[in-house]
Please model this.
Amino acid sequence: MSLPSKSPLPKAFGLIHQILQSSPVEGLSTKEIIKEGLKIYQIENPSYNQQSSSSSSSTSSSTLTTLIGENSIKGKGKNVLINNNKNQKGINIIPEGHPFISTSYLKSRVLATLQSQSLLIKTSQQKQHQQSSSSTSTNTGGGGGKPIFLWKLNEIKQSNLNNIPKWDFNEHWKKLINNEQSPGKLFFNLNKNKELRKKEEFERSLNNFQNKIKRNNQQILQWKDRKPFLTTILERSHLNKRRLEKRPKKERIRLNLFESVNNNGHQNIIQDTLNA
Model:
């Protein structure tokens, strides 16, 4: 099951993969991804020019000029813009036909889908404000400025298991880009693989624990005729960390005391005292 042939998602996934493969280690912001996406779109579509963008910009500029001319007031020798249309939508800088569709579509459908499938990770960095040398104002905030979010490819490390194979994320990308399977189907299969791997990892850790207990039991059998006052690690497992570290030394002291008294013929008296 795949997406409809007219869906822009496969091309958008491929464009994101192409952009982030050659991006810096720290990743790219959404604005930088859009900028790179427009560059690639222009290269792959030579007939495309920015007439639509420039016309939109000129339209917005003329609208802005009209607003300034009609709705301006004087204040400190300058014109102050008063825009009463608060519901006016922003201009879409992404051209028609581009797989990103719009900034909102890129964030909510493309990047969010890739992040949910563990293909991308989003990190935040503190944006540093740079002041010019001519500026005399000081930054009283003390912080690094507003954080910016960066996107980068997720390098996933998977453990080697006996029964459940590793998930092939390169093949995952390929199926998304070539529209061989829908994102929903791939997401379902990915989560199923994660659950099976988690179950096997738990069983492996449980087997390791049981083998450790088995080794401890063997130690107990080997210590069947051990000297009094000495215990095994398993017998001391109920102690907290501090007592567990001090117990062997304490047992040796008791044993030495027992043996020294035993040599003097007072074994029963001392043993009753120590057990009290």
Notes: The chain has a mean pLDDT of 75. The beta strands are 72-75, 78-81, 120-126, 147-153. The chain has eight helices and four strands.
